């Protein structure tokens, strides 16, 4: 197991190298000029050129890539072209809000989606099942920002129950922290709930038709342990896989959600960096997200072992 | 107790019980002493000489002071300067600083700081560059006296030091002002009424300013950038909200106090809310621009440029950009800001009256236009530019031109407009932008009207007649003389079609009704503003 873990961790190195090369090349080829954005609309073409030179953007691709790669290898993601602040510092400022949003969304999604998926499978074909599935289709179909605006208007502006924007660090108290995350988590979690609920229902339907479930019922077990102990545990592997895949969805969704609710997280940092062509910033964020995704996949693989004793690495 | 307060209390109690005792949130202490402001854009960098975006200037006015400041009549007034003296030949200027000026690190503001700051600024600003070209000597005579010796008179020297057009001449400590003007400073120490809280700065999220206790405002009442900058807040937070709907909701919810740039679509909602006040932000407004590439066909031929000019309907553009509320926009046959002393409509006839599509087609034929695509760079992420681009595509088709509509983002427009290549090889034919009215009050900051060929702003118009009038304006000694020159300049620029103004329009600002003292101006002025 330890050997497997080590191999997987080492395997992240070539993955990260490929991501780095890909992102750097893509940005090099993409149109847009950070120097023009920095200089502002009042600047003359000569000023823009001078700023471009001062940022080193006039140097060849290979020189810039080599320099950046060496920096990254020494643990330095570089400096933002716009703020002049280290990329690591800027990412560090934004990790807590995004992590909080993802944790609350994930918790909410699992707490809601798994039970309703189980119930839908249990009552397959009933009106309850149809309602759950209809909600799941709705969850897939309505974009995050639409749900976000609707929630902000009703629960924030009209009923004045919750704040519509911002983020409060958890160090300032649990409720102020949670208060700012409720609406964004519901908005972001909507599609995620739909996804997990559908997978849970489908997997549970398959498991519930197995012989050992019939045996469990035959020996007199009530429905709750049959569903949540015998069936759900055996249906868990695909559900965990989807939850893992969903982390990528969450990262993508966070970009939109953080904009709608003005949460100063990594999603907004990404958008700002792309709009301004802040190359070191974009490269740093993409590298970090790739790393996180590789780790999530590793975590999912390890959870398989805990859930299914037949799986061995 | 409102519903949110009730919910907060209820939930705090609940969470305390559930979580075993998390501290309850303290009510925002000193809320009356904190102003939460949503600026027009993200404060992504903070060097007003290196980066010339308006948002940087607007934040910088809190932190860095200026030698002079403009009042609402666009006249330069003393700010850091106590007195000035000009020799009878106008070649030697002596400025004396006010006593008691201090930087935020406690150091005194000295003449050497001013010399270094002016020197850095003169490397980046258009008026500064002119001053640098005629500068013989710029020295600190003593701790409070600066001497500036020029090779020829420059009557607008105090205006140059006071103007709001970017980059402004902000005064920094010498050690910062010695930074290469094309590199960013890494310390934010000024002598303005607020100090920048570097530790709280999260670019893209928040920037915070705290009252500088040692700041000594002038005794005159504050007016625009002049007079006493009296601050009534201990802290000002700039909350960055890229989404207008979120900012609107936050203002209605009382989560923010002041929103600099509400979009016209949301203004009716804000106006219906009795807790919110809405007004024109800047009486100097904005001028939309149709920028043509004078270097390549078809617009290298003045007849082709005039063809577009005679067919272009400013009303169409303004309705697309601002809407049907005609109090918010007007047509202007001028390159200059209406309502300001130098405004002139001389030579503006081609933009007046019924639009002449047949005449435009005829002119295009005379120019030898034979269907070459006009590459239109249209930024889709800037609502006014997107709207203008759509009108332009329709207009060009109506007069028989072929349109190569490049829908892109502003970052790409910023890069591509600098290309002098042929339109089909990475260059361009036209793009839209807008100019702040404050920059179009005279030729000093109005770089868009300049026509100095390769050295001119993007599009590179080349008209010795225009440049002659610009040079004459700099030397004008009276307002009447300036008016005469600007009339000639406007006419020459219209004839050459340096660019085509697409109309003049205002923007809104909105704030909670418990705020007092908010004024209209090209920048959000924070002095004099307080919470009732």
Structure description:
The complex is a heterodimer of chains A (313) and B (532). By secondary structure, chain A is mostly helical. Chain A has twelve helices and no strands. The radius of gyration of chain A is 24 Å and the shape is globular. The N and C termini of chain A lie close together (6 Å). The model of chain A has no long low-confidence stretch (mean pLDDT 88). With 532 residues, chain B is α+β, with helices and mostly antiparallel strands. In chain B, α3 (111-122) packs across α4 (126-134), α9 (302-311) runs antiparallel to α11 and α10 packs antiparallel against α12. Chain B is globular, with a radius of gyration of 25 Å. In chain B, 52% of the residues are buried. Chains A and B meet through α2, α3, α5, α7 and α8 of A and α1, α7 and α13 of B.
Per-chain topology:
The complex is a heterodimer of chains A (313) and B (532).
Chain A (H helix, E strand, L loop, with lengths): L1 H28 L4 H6 L5 H10 L6 H13 L13 H36 L4 H15 L2 H15 L15 H35 L2 H8 L4 H38 L5 H11 L2 H29 L6
Helix pairs in contact in A: 1-12, 5-6, 5-8, 5-10, 6-8, 7-8, 7-10, 8-10, 9-10, 10-11, 10-12, 11-12
Chain B lengths: L2 H17 L14 E5 L15 H10 L4 E3 L5 E3 L2 E6 L5 E6 L13 H12 L3 H9 E8 L2 E6 L6 H6 L11 H4 L16 E3 L9 E6 L23 E5 L4 H9 L5 E2 L7 H6 L3 E5 L5 E7 L9 H10 L2 H8 L7 E2 L26 H10 L7 E6 L3 H16 L4 E6 L1 H7 L13 E7 L27 H12 L3 H18 L3 E6 L2 E5 L2 E2 L13 E2 L1
Parallel strand pairs in B: 1-10, 1-11, 15-16, 15-17
Antiparallel strand pairs in B: 2-3, 4-5, 5-7, 6-7, 8-9, 9-10, 11-19, 12-19, 13-17, 13-18, 14-18, 20-21
């Amino acid at each position: 197991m330890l050997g497997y873990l080590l191999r997987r961790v080492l395997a992240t190195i070539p993955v990260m190298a490929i991501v780095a090369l890909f992102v750097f090349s893509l940005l090099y080829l993409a149109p847009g000029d950070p120097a023009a954005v920095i200089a502002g609309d009042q600047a003359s073409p000569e000023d823009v050129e001078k700023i471009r030179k001062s940022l080193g953007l006039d140097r060849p691709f290979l020189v810039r890539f080599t320099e950046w790669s060496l920096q990254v290898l020494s643990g330095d993601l570089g400096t933002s072209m716009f703020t002049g602040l280290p990329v690591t510092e800027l990412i560090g400022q934004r990790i807590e809000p995004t992590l909080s949003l993802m944790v609350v969304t994930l918790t909410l999604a699992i707490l809601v989606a798994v039970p309703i998926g189980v119930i839908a499978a249990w009552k397959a074909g009933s009106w309850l099942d149809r309602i759950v599935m209809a909600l799941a289709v709705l969850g897939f179909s309505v974009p995050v920002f639409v749900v976000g605006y609707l929630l902000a208007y009703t629960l924030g502006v009209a009923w004045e129950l919750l704040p519509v924007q911002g983020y409060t660090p958890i160090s300032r108290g649990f409720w102020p922290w949670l208060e700012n995350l409720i609406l964004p988590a519901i908005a972001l979690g909507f599609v995620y709930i739909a996804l997990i609920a559908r997978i849970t229902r489908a997997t549970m339907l398959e498991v519930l038709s197995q012989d050992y479930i019939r045996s469990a019922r035959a020996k007199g077990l009530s429905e709750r342990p049959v569903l949540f102990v015998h069936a759900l545990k055996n249906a868990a592997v695909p559900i965990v896989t989807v939850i893992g895949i969903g982390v990528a969805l969450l990262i993508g969704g966070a970009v939109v959600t953080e904009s709608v609710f003005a949460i100063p997280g990594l999603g907004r940092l990404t958008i700002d960096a792309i709009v301004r062509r802040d190359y070191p910033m974009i490269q740093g964020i993409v590298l970090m997200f790739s790393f996180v995704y590789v780790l999530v996949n590793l975590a999912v693989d390890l959870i398989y072992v805990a859930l299914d004793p037949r799986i061995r690495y | 107790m409102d519903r949110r307060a009730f919910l907060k209390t209820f939930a705090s109690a609940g969470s305390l019980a559930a979580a075993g005792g998390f501290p309850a949130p303290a009510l925002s202490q000193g809320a009356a002493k904190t102003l939460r402001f949503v600026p027009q854009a993200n404060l992504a960098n903070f060097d007003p000489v290196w980066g010339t975006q308006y948002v940087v200037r607007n934040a910088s006015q809190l932190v860095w002071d200026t030698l002079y400041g403009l009042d609402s009549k666009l006249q330069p007034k003393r700010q850091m300067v106590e007195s000035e003296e000009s020799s009878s030949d106008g070649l030697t200027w002596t400025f004396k600083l006010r006593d008691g000026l201090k930087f935020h690190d406690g150091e005194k503001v000295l003449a050497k700081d001013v010399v270094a700051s002016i020197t850095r600024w003169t490397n980046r600003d258009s008026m500064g560059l002119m001053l640098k070209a005629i500068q013989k000597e710029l020295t600190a005579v003593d701790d409070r006296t600066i001497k500036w010796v020029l090779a020829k008179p420059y009557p607008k020297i105090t205006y140059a030091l006071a103007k709001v057009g970017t980059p402004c001449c902000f005064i920094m400590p010498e050690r910062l002002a010695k930074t290469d003007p094309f590199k960013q400073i890494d310390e934010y120490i000024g002598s303005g009424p607020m100090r920048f809280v570097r530790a709280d700065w999260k670019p893209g999220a928040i920037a915070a300013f705290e009252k500088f206790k040692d700041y000594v405002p002038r005794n005159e009442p504050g007016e625009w950038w002049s007079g006493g900058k009296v601050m009534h807040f201990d802290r000002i937070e700039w909350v960055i909200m890229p989404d207008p709907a979120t900012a609107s909701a936050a203002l209605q919810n009382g989560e923010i106090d002041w929103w600099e740039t509400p979009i016209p679509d949301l203004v009716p909602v804000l106006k219906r809310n009795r807790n919110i006040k809405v007004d024109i932000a800047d009486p100097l407004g904005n001028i939309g621009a149709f920028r043509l590439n004078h270097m390549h066909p078809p617009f290298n031929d003045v007849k082709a440029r005039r063809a577009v000019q005679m067919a272009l309907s400013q009303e169409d553009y303004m309705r697309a950009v601002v809407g049907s509320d005609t109090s918010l926009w007007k047509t202007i046959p001028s390159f200059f800001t209406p309502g300001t002393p130098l405004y002139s409509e001389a030579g503006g006839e081609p933009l007046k009256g019924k639009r002449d599509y047949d005449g435009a087609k005829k002119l295009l034929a005379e120019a030898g236009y034979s269907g070459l695509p006009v590459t239109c760079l249209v930024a889709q992420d800037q609502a006014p530019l997107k709207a203008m681009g759509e009108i332009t595509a329709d207009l060009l088709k109506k007069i028989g031109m072929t349109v190569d509509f490049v829908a892109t983002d502003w970052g790409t427009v910023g890069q591509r407009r600098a290309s002098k290549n042929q339109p089909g090889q990475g260059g361009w034919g036209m793009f839209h932008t807008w100019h702040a009215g404050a920059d179009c009050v005279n030729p000093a900051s109005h770089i868009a009207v300049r026509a100095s060929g390769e050295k001119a702003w993007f599009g590179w118009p080349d008209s010795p007649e225009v440049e002659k009038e610009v040079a004459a304006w700099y030397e004008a000694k009276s307002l009447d003389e300036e008016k005469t020159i600007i009339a000639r300049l406007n006419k020459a620029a219209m004839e050459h079609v340096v660019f085509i103004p697409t109309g003049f329009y205002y923007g809104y600002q909105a704030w909670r009704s418990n705020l007092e003292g908010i004024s209209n101006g090209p920048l959000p002025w924070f002095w004099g503003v307080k919470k009732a």
